[in-house]
Design a protein that fits this description.
By secondary structure, this protein is mainly alpha-helical. Helix content is 77%, strand content 1%. It is built from 21 helices and two strands. Strands 1-2 form a two-stranded antiparallel ribbon. Strand 1 (459-462) and strand 2 (465-467) form a beta hairpin. Helix 13 (306-321) crosses helix 17.
Length: 555
């Protein structure tokens, strides 16, 4: 009998600690709110608008037999897909956070593994329920309002609880074994970064190519009559005019109990084996890093001074050992998924996409190593700034690191995209040249901005991984400093001031506000001003970064 209070205490503690962590981090709270509105907001809004009418039609007995059959298929197939989605999310959370319990030396010695697993799983069910409870109740209430019965408001939360009670334990068990393989089993642990990259590449590739939609459609049809769709019959209890299968409802309840029990029976020994296992030893990778770094140092020995070479090699080596530090550089690529799908559909790269990808390369060149030159030093900051190395050497070393990594991409990718796109050879050459020049100037521009707005503390990149990242202010200022000159250059290169002036006049004429007119000459002068300022900013920023490093005072 004492196991239930202990497991409940663990679950309550996990929920409170997570709630405090989220509430204490305003940025994380804002991002989670935006993500919740983006994922669940449209579905909830559509439901509130159209579901009451569906409820009225169902209550009036308007549903024809073929319509009732379609509703049944949608309910069972949709619930099956929803269950798979929840399992996938539970697996991902287990791999990244849940299976890595906090203070394991305390919790695993103070109580049994069974209590810990039950508490952790119950806490996860509570987390998922918090996300799903509000939209579920709102949509169910809207349908109940139209149908004139309170039954949907009762059935929908019960269905969510039933689905979560099976999906989360199954996801926990699978996730524990995946985490065990990538952290304990040495042949796989050695290449876990590559495996993660391959997984996300395949996932986003499936989204971009439309294969994910095809897979979901196939599963939706195939799982309608499977046991995974049986909980859908429980949902149909709240729909007037449809008689759900009693066998399906009984199978859903009994099957859920069996699946939950089996998942916990397997998950408890799986967690015990993982939590008490020694992590894999991957120290051989450090030797490989040192060997490759020695080769890079040898290549640079005849061209740059030893302090600059040391800073360059150290920056690249640290990033290779902990690539999570550079995760922020890939964030803009998430917005390119829609463009990739469009490229595949068109069979070519539109010119504006070639320019956007080239601009991203320029942006990434500065964001890699120079957007936080002081904060990236971490605990070594006092030793470095008080050593004999000068600011010029420290900043040049980081500039060189960014150039070495970015220049090959700046040469090859714009050339390939320009040749594949409808761009002429002259404009392709201009795109390549502009990308190369931008890749050289961007690190210098980022160095001063990062020195003006440094960040010294680490932030949570994932739920259990921390890294020192550039500040949000540095991100914003640097991105604008890259974007504005690029837009000005495009305006001048395409001779677009007259078209922009005409567009402003047209839009102004449509609005009730006083008419605004801007001459093409003023736009051209403004574009030249922004472009010249953007080209001169890297030198000013570079000089500021040097002075900031040389005169940095330890507090």
């Amino acid at each position: 009998m004492t196991r239930v209070p202990i497991a409940a205490g663990i679950a309550g503690t996990e929920v409170r600690r997570t709630a405090r962590a989220v509430a204490g981090n305003r940025t994380k709270l804002l991002l989670m709110t935006v993500a919740g509105l983006f994922m669940l907001g449209p579905v909830t809004a559509v439901g509130l608008l159209f579901v009451p009418e569906l409820g009225e039609r169902a209550a009036a007995g308007v549903l024809a037999p073929d319509v009732a059959a379609t509703v049944t298929e949608v309910a069972t197939g949709g619930i099956a897909l929803f269950w798979l989605f929840l399992v996938l999310m539970a697996v991902m959370r287990t791999v990244t956070a849940v299976a890595n319990v906090d203070e394991p030396a305390f919790i695993l010695l103070s109580t049994s593994v069974r209590n810990t697993v039950v508490g952790v799983v119950v806490a996860e069910i509570a987390f998922f329920a918090v996300w799903l409870a509000v939209p579920t109740v709102l949509v169910a209430a809207a349908f109940a309002y139209g149908a004139g019965t309170v039954l949907p408001v009762i059935v929908a939360p019960l269905l969510i609880g039933l689905v979560l009670s099976t999906a989360v334990p199954v996801g926990f068990t699978v996730g524990v074994w995946i985490r065990h393989l990538i952290t304990v089993y040495e042949p796989i642990a050695r290449y876990r970064t590559v495996l993660f990259a391959a997984f996300w590449l395949a996932y986003f590739g499936a989204i971009a190519t439309g294969r994910l939609n095809a897979i979901m459609g196939t599963l939706f049809t195939a799982l309608q009559a499977s046991p995974l769709g049986w909980p859908g019959y429980l949902l149909l209890l709240g729909v007037p005019g449809i008689d759900p299968s009693p066998t399906g409802i009984a199978g859903a309840v009994i099957g859920s109990a069996l699946v939950t029990g089996l998942a916990m029976a397997v998950g408890i020994p799986s967690a015990r084996r993982h939590w008490f296992a020694d992590p894999a030893r991957t120290h051989d990778e450090e030797l490989d890093d040192e060997t490759s770094s020695d080769r890079l140092s040898g290549l640079l020995s005849g061209t740059v001074s030893r302090p600059v070479r040391t800073v360059t090699v150290t920056a690249i080596r640290r990033s290779k050992r902990a690539p999570i530090r550079l995760a922020y550089v890939g964030y803009p690529l998430f917005g390119a998924l829609g463009f990739v799908q469009q490229i595949i559909e068109l069979g070519t790269i539109p010119p504006f996409m070639a320019a956007m990808f080239s601009l991203y390369i320029v942006w990434a060149a500065g964001a890699l190593f120079t957007l936080n030159p002081l904060g990236d030093l971490g605990p070594a900051l006092p030793a470095v700034v008080t050593s004999s190395i000068t600011g010029r050497q420290a900043i040049r070393g980081r500039l060189l690191a960014g150039a070495l990594i970015s220049l090959p991409f700046a040469l090859v990718l714009p050339l390939v995209m320009g040749l594949v796109s409808p761009l002429s050879l002259e404009r392709t050459a201009a795109l390549v040249a502009g990308t190369l020049v931008g890749t050289i100037l961007a690190p210098a521009l980022a160095s001063g901005i990062g020195s003006l707005f440094p960040r010294f503390g680490s932030v949570n990149v994932t739920n259990n991984r921390e890294a020192v990242m550039p500040s949000k202010t540095a991100f914003l200022v640097y991105s604008l400093a890259i974007l504005l000159p690029a837009v000005a250059a495009a305006v001048l290169y395409l001779e677009a001031p007259e078209a922009i002036a005409g567009l402003i006049a047209t839009v102004s004429a449509w609005t009730p506000a006083p008419e605004v007119t801007v001459s093409a000459r003023a736009i051209a002068v403004g574009a030249w001003t922004v472009l010249i300022g953007g080209l001169g900013a890297p030198y000013v920023s570079y000089r500021y970064a040097i002075e900031r490093f040389d005169w940095y005072a330890l507090e």
